[in-house]
Specification:
Elements lengths: L8 E9 L11 E11 L5 E12 L4 E7 L7 E2 L4 E10 L3 E12 L4 E12 L6
Antiparallel strand pairs: 1-2, 2-6, 3-4, 3-5, 3-7, 7-8
């Protein structure tokens, strides 16, 4: 596996609450997250797998691993952004997600790119 420092990815994250998919009285709080990945490297890359660590406000951890993102294993061309939106359901009003993607370059070298921690929270719950 190659070092992710050999590649330059810019990962932007936006998250929000989905009240229409939440049932607070059953401790089900749904959140969306939109991730935009820009490949700033000189060669095309393909996103193969994701690994998420999701921690709710009670400290309960859920790990999610799978192929690609939203049913795709996108090819990331240099300087072309790729965006997708997905969701997570927590038992609390706040939580945090972090993880990494496994990608492969044009030569078949796999590497991991870290996705920094981001917050899932009801509006105005945290400042």
């Amino acid at each position: 596996m190659s070092n992710s420092l050999d590649y330059d990815l810019d990962i932007d994250i936006e998250s929000g609450f989905l009240p229409e998919h939440s049932v607070p009285e059953n401790q089900q709080f749904a959140f969306y997250y939109t991730i935009t990945i820009r490949n700033c490297s000189s060669q095309a890359l393909q996103l193969l797998r994701r690994h998420w660590i999701i921690t709710d406000g009670n400290g309960e951890i859920n790990e999610v691993k799978g192929e690609g993102v939203v049913g795709k294993q996108p090819h990331l061309q240099p300087d072309k952004p790729f965006s997708y939106t997905s969701s997570a359901v927590l038992a609390t009003e706040v939580g945090v997600m972090q993880g990494w993607y496994t990608l492969v370059d044009e030569d078949g070298n796999e590497f991991q790119a870290e996705v920094p921690a981001f917050r899932l929270s009801l509006p105005n719950k945290l400042h």
